Description:
Blueprint: H1 8-40, H2 45-66, H3 70-94
Amino acid sequence: MKPAIPFGPVVLFVVPLLAGFGVGLLYFAALHRTVKRFMVRDGWLEPVALTVGRFGVAVAVLTFVARTGVTALLLTFLGFLLARTVTLYRSRSAA
């Protein structure tokens, strides 16, 4: 007899959502730092490296999740969009 996973379906929905949210927060934090570095005109290497790293991490995570299934991909992207919404809300509140 196999042991039952008590929260199996919940975990299958929550983990990709939280992963997308976390990656989204990192993505938009790196975007914020990139914009600040371009505005200060303090060289070009760091903003370019942040941009390449930002895109690379987003593509790698979404590619990995896409291999697990379309539901996980959509939930991860939803978490990413929620992180975007939170970031926009926080930036408008600070201004």
